[in-house]
Amino acid sequence: MSEEKFTRGPWFIKQSEEIRSPYSPNVSSTRITILDEPGGQYQSRHVIAQVAKGNGRGEANAALIAAAPEMYEQLKRHCALCMMMHPDCDGCEICDTGKVLKKARGER
Question: How far is CA 75 from CA 14, 17, 84, in A?
């Protein structure tokens, strides 16, 4: 298993805010921001992601992104338990859980 290069969790949702376009002062959109600091102020070093609120799926997308670190840790635990029960396993190289973990780490 290679080193994880993503920002460690937990991640937090900052509810929607209107963000003005840097290119057109009359254009703005409502965004939900996912931060690596609870109650954090909008500072680029803390922003994990932003999702558009106006498409009707913004809250669900933000919740899924914010839960990613916890889901990743649970998948790692699942692999560890699976390898204990199946010692002849190739270390999650062929199972779907192992593939998802690789994808989360940006591996091919």
Answer: 26, 32, 14
User: Is 3 within 8 Å of 104 (Cβ atoms)?
Assistant: no
Whole-angstrom distance, CA of residue 107 vs CA of residue 52: 27
Residue 80's Cβ-side half-sphere holds a number of Cα atoms within 13 Å equal to 6
Q: What is the pTM of this model?
A: 0.74
Per-residue pLDDT tens digits for 36-86:
887 666 666 788 998 888 777 889 999 999 999 999 999 988 888 877 777
Please say whether the beta carbons of 49 and 65 come within 8 A: yes
90 vs 11: CA distance, rounded Å = 32
